[in-house]
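Protocol check, entry for the methods section draft. Step 1: assemble the input record (protein sequence plus ligand SMILES). Step 2: submit for complex structure prediction. Step 3: store the structure tokens unaltered in the notebook. Ligand used here: adenosine-5'-diphosphate. Step 1 record:
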Amino acid sequence: MLLEINNLDVRYGRNHAVKAMNLNVDDNEIVAVLGANGAGKSSLLKALHGLVPVHAGSIVFSGDDLTMKSSAERVDSRLALVPEGRQILVSMTVHENLLLGGYRRQGSTLLDDIESIYERFPNLGERKDSQASVLSGGEQQMLAIGRALVARPRLIMLDEPSLGLSPILVDQLFELIKNLRGEGISILLVEQNIKKALEVATRGCVMELGSVVLEGASDSLAKDSGLVHAYLGTQN
Ligand SMILES: Nc1ncnc2c1ncn2[C@@H]1O[C@H](COP(=O)(O)OP(=O)(O)O)[C@@H](O)[C@H]1O
Ligand SMILES: [Mg+2]
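Step 3, stored output:
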């Protein structure tokens, strides 16, 4: 198993955001985490990336216990996060943002990898010396994903990547997610676009108030959409 999440608990004071969560992601899998606003999805990903403390439970990635490790060490283990809202540095150039994604790496292979990001996303290549603030929303999402790829991840966690994108860009994004899997990268995908997420995912789960209330193969979850909608409110 690539990622094992065992009884994971995240608390903010008395607010219990993630409750004894268990979830696994295997090599070559896309696992969707669905749920309404406030369900605990971002808290889960932040805990997996060491950005909020783990109150209880453990996180094992490629056989290493990461529970107490820093974010930087998790990047070294090749676990990457594309955070909610993209979080790119808009006053820096596209190229500088990509260099930051490789801050734990050294040498010329980093620049080769950045070149391959420009080949994958030609719009970024054309604007590599421009401030990231000039990028469209879709390009900013590509930059956020490119920055994660520069760390050569085995697993990428994406937090609501389709939020705010036009339908055409949403389709391109999900195409990219499928391609990444084809390249051997596993994906933990937090989404509110249930339909699209379950189309690309192998398995999925639904969170409500910090707990997994539904999980299974994505085709069976998609058939169960009445139930899924019940947990997600009216957005979809
Ligand atoms: N930094 C924080 N401090 C206190 N409470 C927080 C913080 N971040 C999130 N929460 C709370 O934790 C719960 C889960 O939030 P979050 O993980 O952002 O959910 P989601 O990503 O599913 O919308 C919510 O009740 C939210 O208000
Ligand atoms: Mg969130």
